[in-house]
Amino acid sequence: MVLIGVPWAALVIGWVVYQRAGGLGPLATGQQLVDAASGNWWAMGAYAGVTLVRPLVLFPATVLAVAAGVLFGPVFGTVVAAASANGSALVAYQVGRVLRRPPAATPDASLLDGWTRRLRDNGFEAVLLMRLVFLPYDLVSYACGMLRVRRREFLAANALGTVPGTVAFVLVGASVRRVDAGVGGIDGRTLALSIALVVVSVATARVLRRRGCSGRLP
Question: Are 175 and 187 a contacting pair, CB within 8 Å?
Fold first, then answer.
């Protein structure tokens, strides 16, 4: 808990200190940070670095995807966010493999073992569906590592399954023309497209499950 709490506390304190030093409100401070990062060579490196550390401190993946849209726009932001998301998923997966699943000592051990076997036997389909329905990003990655889902299947399904969500959340960020303009700074059409992608992703997961995966997946 200390390893998670300290970075969060540092982030909050840093934000408050920066905001008070500039004498600005939250939205104006956010816009100032966006202006400072946009177009600068260090922005992409900083973004990638934060993304790789993100699963270790449980920072929401969706927030960084939105940030990519704000900083880099819809096209380049999608490329950067997708690459970074897959990198962070691999980090969490590898940590999960190191931790492994502890020995079960409960009456539900047989049920858990059965779920684990099904996940291992159908790793690609399971991970793909979990990503399409937006289950907690890091929880899925850690669980797949701990349960020894095949790395290739995990990475392939993760790369494919996160596309709709990544594009959707990047478009949310790209729809924000100015952070300090509030609702008036949002492009409604871009935002509507991002919402449509979320709906399509969930609908696709339901179709795939009905057509061939419902009896095999956990």
Answer: yes
CA distance 182 to 204: 33
Place of tokens 């008070």: 20
Task: Count the Cβ atoms, other than its own, within 10 Å of residue 75.
Answer: 10
Number of domains in the chain: 2
Please check whether residues 114 and 204 belong to one and the same domain.
yes
Q: Are residues 66 and 24 in the same domain?
A: no
- Inter-residue contact 65 to 166 (CB < 8 Å): yes
Is residue 83 within 8 Å of residue 49, measured between CB atoms?
A: no
Instruction: List pLDDT tens digits, range 27-41.
Output: 666 677 777 777 677
Residue 214: pLDDT band with limits 50, 70, 90: very low
Q: Please give the model's pTM, rounded to 2 decimal places.
A: 0.77
CA gyration radius, the chain: 19
Q: What are phi and psi of 178, to 5 degrees?
A: -145, 130
Asked if residue 156 and residue 142 are part of one domain, the reply reads yes
Range of the domain at 106: 41-213
